[in-house]
Amino acid sequence: MRKAISILILTLGFLFTQNSSAQYYNNGYGNNGYGNGGRMGQMNQMSQLPTQQSAPKPPSNEETASKVIDNLKAELTLDALQEIAVKNILIESLNAQGIIIKKETSNESKGEDLKVISENTDRKILELLNPDQKELYKKIVKDGFKKKKKK
User: Fold this and answer.
1) Could you give the residue ranges of the DSSP H alpha helices within 103-146?
2) Distance CA 120, CA 112 (A)
3) In which band, very low, low, confident or very high, does the pLDDT at 151 lie, cut at 50, 70 and 90?
């Protein structure tokens, strides 16, 4: 009987020790063994939060094309069909430019490729425009798509 009681006491003692030890180390702030996690546990959690100071995300190609179309529509008086077609050409061009910029080649090679894309884009857009719009578009391209200053 004494042997059974001593085994029971040892078992209970072992269980209570394990339970309090689990509470001590599992404190919600990391398992650093300082009861409430201490300052280091809190600092570790703060460093894991996403930072709000990350660089702003660049606009998508669709957004960029929409801004260019808005400027061209006002200056060239594009109709709805021309607007859609030119926007699709611009998106395609911007996607190709993004791929070239991400390539791991020399800057000279990238420059040549970008120039070819720009020429092809201009050629495709000019095919869609009437003669008056073509002249205006060439002038706009020559001036470099400068934004109008608002007064």
Assistant:
1) 107-128, 131-143
2) 12
3) very low
